[in-house]
Amino acid sequence: MAKKPKKQPQSGSTPATVALTAAGTAFTVHAYEHDPAAASYGGEAAEALGVSPDRVFKTLVADVDGRLTVAVVPVAGSLDLKALATAVGGKRAAMADPAAAERTTGYVLGGISPLGQRKRLPTVLDASARDHATVCVSAGRRGLEVELSPTDLASLTGAVFAPIGRGA
Question: Rounded to whole angstroms, how far apart are CA atoms 112 and 138?
């Protein structure tokens, strides 16, 4: 018996957009030309899309007491590692090894999305996301963002809201 060929993803689709579509979630995809020389992936996205940096969120992977954890914070600020550890009931947090982050999520740095990850990780969304009707996060590829409500983002990732960003 011949194997059925795998259905090829639609052009521009990523595991993140596939997950959003499968969940029936309202979202908008924004594409822009990624500049490999850009100093900040998130800053580049905000500028290219003409969106305030406090509405564009970056996805960071940290190690909290030996367990990889996803933090989603505004690109305008930084991650408070101590607050992240507290939010998930941990004691110590440090940024994860980049190779471990890529291997576990299935995405490359600069394109890690909180959605559609290879392995679902505990996720914390900065509480400031609630200040906006919609936020933008990586759609799983450099140069591709997805815009959706913070409530939908938290629901789809199992995220908790906590004040984990600083300086935004």
Answer: 6
Token pair 């579509």 is found at 21
- Can you give the pLDDT at residue 168? 58
Alpha helices in 50-132 (DSSP H): 81-87, 98-105
Length of the chain: 168
The whole-model pTM stands at 0.90
Nearest to 83 by CA among 153, 168, 165: 165
User: Strand pairing partners for 125?
Assistant: 72, 161
19 phi, psi to nearest 5 deg? -65, -40
Distances (CA, A) of 72 to 5, 37, 39, 68, 81: 36, 23, 19, 13, 12
Tens digit of each residue's pLDDT (9 = 90 or more) over 41-67 = 888 898 999 999 999 999 999 999 999
71 DSSP β-pair partners? 60, 124
Using CA atoms, how far apart are residues 146 and 26, in angstroms rounded to an integer? 10
E strands, 32-110, in order:
57-64, 67-74, 78-79, 93-95
